[in-house]
Design brief:
The protein has eleven helices and eight strands. The chain is an alpha/beta fold and 241 residues long. The protein has a single domain (11-238), classed as 2-enoyl-CoA Hydratase, Chain A, domain 1 (Alpha-Beta Complex). A four-stranded parallel beta sheet has the order 1-3-5-8, with helices on both faces. A four-stranded mixed beta sheet has the order 2-4-6-7. Helix 2 (56-75) packs antiparallel against helix 9. The chain is globular, with a radius of gyration of 17 Å. The two termini are 28 Å apart. Bound molecules: ligand LTMAUQNL. Residues 5-6, 8, 40-41, 44-49, 87, 89-91, 114-115, 118, 120-123, 126, 214-215, 218, 235-236, 238-239 line the site of ligand LTMAUQNL.
């Protein structure tokens, strides 16, 4: 990913990712590694500008495009791994959860689902992605407290699989993970993976319209917009301090 300054997902970038995923799906790949070309930031999640004082039509398109990306990512036949070379809050974390394996570079980085701190809530399919990786009880506490884990905590709780010394090491560990499937028939691997992930995939496929409606309702709530205003201000003012 290379969308400076923070690899945030806006509508256009989501379309680019969808197109890339469509393109790679046609190829006979062994696996895919997601990483960032931006030092210290894997992805800062959704672009807050998309849902602070939004245009309604664009907001609906935006969430529908978020759904497209994650339906495709969760469903990829081949192995997926994330070399997390920096912060991965919110949708940055969700992106890594869509992969089967996560190696995170050691450093003063945070990963987790902090949506509640913005006054928004995680959708059921995102919750399912989290509790398929870490236990339900930890998921509930992490989501309700908007917990961002440091690298050691993330390993301890199982949110990441390994700690890497740098980006290259993280990518190598991802490659090693992908090589594990060299002798496994692709079809069996893909079907097993898709069955294991059927909860978020099913919710995404069968409740798309309802999910968009809930997203729009939550985001357009005046108190949520007030929270987002404060959050955007806080992000802007960080630099001035
Ligand atoms: C039933 C369900 C119904 C409804 C559901 C509702 C919602 C859907 C739920 C969940 C989906 C996911 C949501 C999200 O992803 S929301 C986004 C959350 N992201 C964050 O909170 C991260 C915010 N950013 C940071 O904390 C820091 O930037 C970070 C630690 C990542 C990096 O810090 P660093 O000091 O290295 O850089 P900064 O100077 O802070 O940032 C650089 C630059 O980037 C801008 N920035 C950062 N993050 C965002 C963002 N998410 N959106 C837009 N812009 C962002 C930041 O302002 C700086 O800009 P500039 O000053 O112009 O350089």
């Amino acid at each position: 990913m290379q969308r400076p300054p923070a690899n945030t997902f806006n509508l256009e970038y989501l379309h680019e990712i969808t197109n890339s995923l469509d393109e790679i799906s046609k190829q006979k790949l062994k696996g895919v590694i997601l990483t960032s070309a931006i030092p210290n930031i894997f992805s800062a999640g959704l672009d807050i500008k998309e849902f602070y004082k939004p245009d309604l039509q664009r907001l609906e398109n935006f969430w529908s495009s978020v759904q497209d990306v994650f339906i495709k990512l969760l469903d990829l036949d081949f192995a997926t791994a994330a070399a997390i070379n920096g912060h991965a809050p919110a949708a940055g974390c969700v992106l890594s959860l869509s992969c089967e394996y996560r190696a995170m570079v050691n450093g003063n980085y945070k990963i987790g689902l902090n949506e509640a701190a913005l006054g928004i809530i995680t959708t059921p399919w995102i919750q399912a992605m989290m509790y398929q990786v870490i236990p339900m009880k930890h998921t509930e506490t992490a989501l309700t407290t908007a917990k961002l884990f440091d690298v050691d905590e993330a390993l301890q709780i199982g949110l990441i699989d390994e700690i890497a010394s740098n980006k290259e090491d993280a990518i190598n560990r991802c490659k090693q993970y992908i090589r594990k499937f060299d002798k496994i028939p692709l079809h069996a691997r893909a079907l097993t993976k898709q069955r294991m992930r059927q909860t978020p995939i099913k919710i995404l496929r069968e409740q798309r319209d309802e999910d968009i409606r809930m997203f729009v309702d939550v985001v357009m709530n005046p108190s949520v917009q007030d929270n987002l205003k404060d959050y955007v201000e806080k992000l802007k003012n960080k630099k001035k301090k």
